[in-house]
Design brief:
37% helix, mainly alpha, globular
């Protein structure tokens, strides 16, 4: 199977669905999407927007993401490096 970089594949969809259902099952649970973008050479333009729209197309709405904001940002891993260095 060939996976086109930046597109949601069945494994990513399955993981998102499990986490979405887990968040919805628990009171005050939130489905938060963070984008792994630390490998800057492999970034596909428009991929993160397509990911969110693909999730929404299958009925998985995000509570927080780089598009929707929220209290647990930043939502791009490259902007969270200071957290990891601590």
């Amino acid at each position: 199977m060939y996976v086109i970089p930046g597109l949601l594949h069945i494994g990513g969809l399955r993981t998102a669905l499990y986490n979405y259902l887990f968040a919805r099952k628990h009171k005050d649970g939130k489905f938060i999407v963070r984008i792994e973008d630390t490998d800057q050479e492999r970034i596909v333009p428009g991929a993160k927007e397509r990911l969110i729209s693909s999730l929404e197309w299958v009925g998985i709405d995000t509570d927080e993401s780089f598009l929707h904001g929220g209290h647990h940002g930043p939502y791009l891993q490259s902007q969270r490096l200071h957290h990891y260095k601590r």
